[in-house]
Design goal:
alpha/beta; 9 helices; 7-stranded mixed sheet; 23% strand; 297 residues
């Protein structure tokens, strides 16, 4: 384990323990969540060293690296993924109708394959070997194991990170890389869980999107806005992600011990209520989407 001496966002040395969350997905280990006393940013601390983090992803059930279609949860995920891929394409096309796209954390490559079919030139980054091999074999996509393997700078018109930034150990270094990778006025799209959502408060430490220790950072909208501004990006829009509340609620109910059918029924109610609280009360949805452009020099 490594203990951070500075806040990953503002570099303050003053932070305090906020709560404890468990790795419900795999090991049942407990991990501490710390809040920075300077900026309020929340992060997993201490956390496994980089060399140890990989083992927390080594499961056939880690669904973002899987194309399984066996149980109810798998089928729901695959259905949601097909809907999400089409929705992501429409979003990208609205702001950038053509060009080169780099998807960081591309998993098994379905999103990039869809974009490629629409005429975009695509490449991916995926650390997981099995997922990377599936993306290459099934879709003939160029996929690299890390951002450091991407050699061409100022090359991409679009860079996307769909539920990836929360896994990144060094936020500041990553945003510098993102800035360097994008062409002038290039588009950056980031989606992350939002800890200020109603469902996060409802589930407390059992909220599935804590997902410790795989999730190292636990964002609010203001945290992403700050990172974008600090690293040379202009925010275009911050958008809700309506579907995430249902899936995160489903996982959270499973972690509470409910079977598949009961968990699905409860998640429909909880997800809908969380989204209504967003519409009527202005709270963020379970996840938030950020669209930004590389600022002009």
């Amino acid at each position: 384990m490594e203990s951070l001496a500075h806040c990953p966002l503002c570099r303050s040395e003053r932070f305090a323990t906020n709560s404890t969350a468990h790795d419900h997905f795999l090991t049942q280990e407990a991990f501490t969540l710390s809040d920075c006393e300077g900026c309020g940013f929340r992060f997993t601390n201490p956390r496994p060293q980089q060399s140890e983090l990989e083992r927390y992803y080594q499961s056939a059930s880690y669904i973002s690296h899987s194309d399984r279609n066996e149980g109810l949860q798998d089928r729901l995920y695959q259905l949601a993924r097909r809907w999400a891929v089409a929705s992501k394409y429409r979003l990208i096309h609205r702001y950038q109708p053509q060009g080169r796209v780099l998807d960081i954390g591309c998993g098994t490559g379905h999103f990039l394959a869809h974009l490629m079919g629409k005429g975009y030139l695509v490449e991916g980054v995926e650390p997981d070997l099995k997922a990377r091999e599936k993306a290459i074999a099934n879709h003939s996509i160029s996929v690299m194991p890390s951002i450091s393997n991407v050699k061409l700078f100022e090359h991409y018109q679009v860079v996307t990170m769909w539920h990836v930034l929360e896994h990144i150990p060094d936020l500041r270094a990553t945003f510098k890389q993102l800035f360097a990778l994008l062409a002038d006025r290039g588009l950056l799209v980031i989606a992350v869980p939002d800890r200020e959502s109603w469902d996060a408060g409802h589930y407390g430490p059992e909220w599935a999107a804590w997902d410790v220790p795989r999730h190292l950072s636990h964002f609010r909208r203001k945290d992403i806005h700050c990172l974008l501004e600090q690293h040379g990006f202009e925010l275009i829009a911050t958008k809700p992600m309506w579907l995430d509340a249902y899936y995160i609620s489903l996982l959270s109910e499973r972690y509470r011990g409910y079977g598949s059918i009961i968990a699905m029924i409860k998640s429909l109610f909880i997800g809908t209520w969380s989204n209504l609280r967003s519409v009527l009360g202005g709270r963020p949805t379970s996840s938030s989407l950020f669209i930004a452009r590389k600022a002009e020099p």
